[in-house]
Amino acid sequence: xxxxxxxxxxxxxxxxxxxxxxxxxxxxxxxxxxxxxxxxxxxxxxxxxxxxxxxxxxxxxxxxxxxxxxxxxxxxxxxxxxxxxxxxxxxxxxxxxxxxxxxxxxxxxxxxxxxxxxxxxxxxxxxxxxxxxxxxxxxxxxxxxxxxxxxxxxxxxxxxxxxxxxxxxxxxxxxxxxxxxxxxxxxxxxxxxxxxxxxxxxxxxxxxxxxxxxxxxxxxxxxxxxxxxxxxxxxxxxxxxxxxxxxxxxxxxxxxxxxxxxxxxxxxxxxxxxxxxxxxxxxxxxxxxxxxxxxxxxxxxxxxxxxxxxxxxxxxxxxxxxxxxxxxxxxxxxxxxxxxxxxxxxxxxxxxxxxxxxxxxxxxxxxxxxxxxxxxxxxxxxxxxxxxxxxxxxxxxxxxxxxxxxxxxxxxxxxxxxx
Length: 419
Fold this sequence. Notes:
The chain is an alpha+beta fold. It folds into three domains: 2-77, CATH 2.40.50.100; 114-186, no CATH class; 200-417, Chloramphenicol acetyltransferase-like domain (Chloramphenicol Acetyltransferase, 2-Layer Sandwich), CATH 3.30.559.10. The chain has 13 helices and 19 strands. It has helices at 85-90, 99-106, 109-112, 126-135, 153-162, 170-174, 177-187, 197-212, 225-242, 249-262, 306-321, 395-410, 413-417, and strands at residues 2-6, 16-22, 29-30, 35-40, 45-49, 54-59, 66-68, 72-77, 215-223, 268-271, 274-277, 283-285, 287-289, 292-294, 297-298, 335-339, 358-362, 366-372, 375-389. Strands 9, 12, 15, 16, 17, 18 and 19 form a seven-stranded mixed β-sheet that branches. A four-stranded antiparallel β-sheet has the order 1-8-6-3, with no helix packed on it. The chain has a four-stranded antiparallel β-sheet with strand order 5-4-2-7, with no helix packed on it.
């Protein structure tokens, strides 16, 4: 008797996906709800779990293949499989020769198999496992900070950066690698890598946005002195009461809500020969991940306070880094904020996230000399950039919107008084 594993429903308007990787191979034991493979769609990656326990008897669709919703991926049969603790312990002994060739594939099996109660050898999340595999880390040497001592992706990344979790044999084994890699590099300085589905979609939609909308960007700058002082004074009390850090993004979201109420065209979209004005604000917050840019949406932010906004953004940030975003998390945005300042960007012209008509670009806070009341003083300044669809939004409206955002940030009490 076998149970079929098929491509699940992927969300509205998404009909196909690409198989990014298989976590199991034929003959491996699987348990209920254990991830079998990872599917990459136009927007997010999705793990396909086993709905029954048994043995993965056959893989139908290979890595890199494009599959449609409902397509057969694999089948699970009855049995205990080959990945029992006894089998895992015995596996390395009879076949020492192919270790150098099979190491990239075989090494990940040990950390993901709970053969010992050690913290380092417990099951890893797909995101953490990927970092461990890519950097050749030894999980038993990584201190887990997750629930019940589990190793999180951040733990693995930190271990990779410090080099503390590299197996002791790695230095000797890698000693000859630079010479070999240099020899290859001399022959050719290029590497061809197939674009992921997400990257292809990002490229396609950004170009479509440029070709469709009449995009224009207007700039302003904001003195962050008052906001930074307010945050510095209340951040500890805020975190103690709400259990979340008081960042700048919540203030920017609230400032944009105030401006969008006054200039509704920036929160509108074109549909055929009609303009749809939204009486709600679903705020898209751009988040950079190792696979590309994603924009999770915080819904109805006009009804939320600073703490609720910061909590929602924090949750989405963690889900994005761990590859846990769902399709619905990325749909329905009416306006977007992109913060290039976290990477050091001083100024940029963000591209619209269609069909939205506005996107605000935040940038790096930099100390600059400013003329204030006839005197030159040094202030923490940030450039703001509003890209907008000139088909809907007039220049006057765009400039007014940005001025309102500036006023709210330079005098934060306006946000409290909702003026």
